[in-house]
Every structure is written in structure tokens, then in C-alpha cells.
Amino acid sequence: MRSEFLSFSPPLIGQLEIDAVVDTLRSGWITTGPKTRRFERDFSEFVCSPSALALNSCTAGLHTALVALGVGPGDEVITTCMTFAASANVIEHVGARPVFVDVEPDTLNIDPDGVERAITRRTRAIMPVHFAGHPVDLDAIHAIAEQRKLAVVEDAAHAVGAKYRDRWIGAGNNPTAFSFYATKNMTTGEGGMLTGDEELVSRARTISLHGMSREAWRRYQQGGAWQYDVVLPGFKYNMTDIQAALGICQLSRLHAMQCRRREIADAYGQAFRQCDELETPATRPDVLHAWHLYVIRLRRGTLRIGRAQFIDRLTERKIGTSVHFIPIHLHPYYRNKYGYSADSFPVAYDSYDRMLSLPLNPTMTDQDVADVIESVCDIVRDFRAMEVAA
Ligand SMILES: Cc1ncc(COP(=O)(O)O)c(C=O)c1O
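Above: inputs. Below: predicted complex with pyridoxal-5'-phosphate.
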């Protein structure tokens, strides 16, 4: 038994990040400024995006992208039901209707056939989510979008460091939003990045800061002009240089952090192969998985306990877990507003009922990984349904 609780997803913050933040605090400029611009350049170079805009969250990136595309009342945006509230909420924020689609059983990513069936004359955009860091079948989504003249806004909250057919997620012209929330593969505490073509990102930049024609940093610089115009009623979504200082450091060690995530996912995969009771995450060919989450599903009828008790047993053994996600259509706001029932999206509902996320992050030691494996395997052995029958 472990002596200390294994947190589900603590950030990996070292002296590098601490020094960079202190340096920023001492620099005389702490909000959006030179470090934010450098972080945007570094990130854009890393994912090979045409352009990048640093923001205070991924939610802000998704919202800004929808506004920049002109999505609004009367429009529909198709997204997955297996996602966090942010993906659907931003669609509501612009006054459009989120239209949910079920997921594919292996990756739990949005089902392209379902997308096709959900299109109406009101559909303006598709918002796929790279669930757990496994890239969505982007070729299929873009083929539908091109044929039906729809925008594609990627929710890449989980997908920094992921590739689809040898291209980094975020390398395309369509808007793609990343999250640097505290639990994500790289973090700025809170934060996000929107990538996409230059014109769209430039529009998003204005929308993200009160619709002002010139940012504070440029106005307060020596020689900067005090004058600015408000060209639209924008939001207040900018990233600070304190966050960007963290982001620059985290990006510089992303490769090493991703390697560790991959090692842990491989170790889990090998160990759990011996447990027929567990369905482990799928990885399709032609993708580089970002391994943001490691989601296992309990196979029905093979264990004497359900997901909730499985989590309780892991908690007793001091292993932190989570559930990703409670499908959006089960939340009261969406269920009541649009009249969904649990089985409206059977694949997502069936998976939700038997899924849990295990700790997977680069702060984990080999002993932590071994403890998770041993605990999971012990619980499976202790509660195997076959032993009841025997
Ligand atoms: C799929 C998905 N989309 C969007 C978000 C929102 O990210 P942020 O907290 O940076 O706004 C999250 C956050 O966990 C998420 O999991």
C-alpha cells in the first residue's frame, strides 16, 4: 500500500519555470507583452501553424474562433457529446445551437458518419474534439466540411503534441484551440492558444481584447501612440506575460514530457493486456497520440463491481482517478433544453457508464506506475465475475 495519495494530474513545474516567472515579475511588464509574443512564435513554430494567438483559456480560443467565423443565432454547430462543457457552452455563447453526435467505439472521437447525418441547412461548422489526445479522423471531417461548405473548429484541448498523418495538430488553416489548464500536457496555470490562418487569427486577436485596434503593450512602449479605436465589442481573453513565461518553459520541455507520457501508456498497455476485463485505449495507424488521458473501460459482465466501486477501490489504495467525460447530453441544461435522453447517444452512454481515467503524467515515477498497475490488476482479480461462477 502506498503511503501517499497519487494525484491524478499534478503539473510538472521546475526551477526553470519558477525562474522565468520571477524574471517576468521583476521585468516591469507582467500582462500581455514580449513574452506572450515570443510564446506565440515558439508555439506556432512547434506545431507549424500559419499563425497563433495566446489567450487565457482554450474556451476563449473556441469562443473567439466562432465569433471570428461569424457563427451566431440561427446557426448550428455539430460537436461530439463526449466532451467537456466548454465545447458546447461556447456554441451557446454565440447564440447558436450545439448539435451533438455520438462517438466511434474505439477512439471515442466524433463519428464522421454521424456528422454527415446531423447536417441541416442551418449547419455552419463542425467542432471535433481530439478526445484524450487521440487525433480525430481529420481527413473524413474535412472532406465533409469541404463538400458542405462548413468551417472546422478543432477543440485540441487534449492534443498538444499529437500528429495526424505526420502533421502536428494545429498545423492547418482552420481554427484550432489548445488548453494549458493546470492538468494539461503543458500548462500556464490557465491559458490557451488559437492557431489558424493569419487573417482569422488577426481577427480573433482584435475580438479577444475589447475589439481594440492596438494592444496596451504597443501603446505603452516608448514611442507608442496613445490612440486606439474600438472596432467591435470584443472580450477580455488575453494571456499575461507571467503565463507566457511558464508556457515558453513548458513548451521547451514538451518533447521530454511527451516521451514520459508515452512510456507510461506503453507500460499500462502491456500490463493490462493480461486483463480481459479491461478495454484499453485504441491507437489507430497514422496518428501520434498525445496521451493526455489514459481511459480504461470495464467490460460488461466480467466484474462483480461497477465503475464507481472500481474508483472507490483505487481511492482506498491511494490512487487518484477521474472520469472523462459525463457526456454533455446528460447534463441538465442540455438535456432539458434539447430534450435528450441517456440513450440518445448509445456509444457514449455505454462507455461513460464503465470508464475511468488512470493517472498519466510526467511527474510519475516508475514506482507510481507500478503501483497503479498493481492496484488495477489486484482489483480486477479480486472482483472477477468468473470466480463467482466457479
Ligand atoms: C475537451 C476540452 N475542451 C475544452 C476545454 C477547456 O479548456 P480550458 O480550461 O483551457 O478553457 C477542456 C478542459 O478541460 C477540455 O477537456
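The chain has a mean pLDDT of 96.
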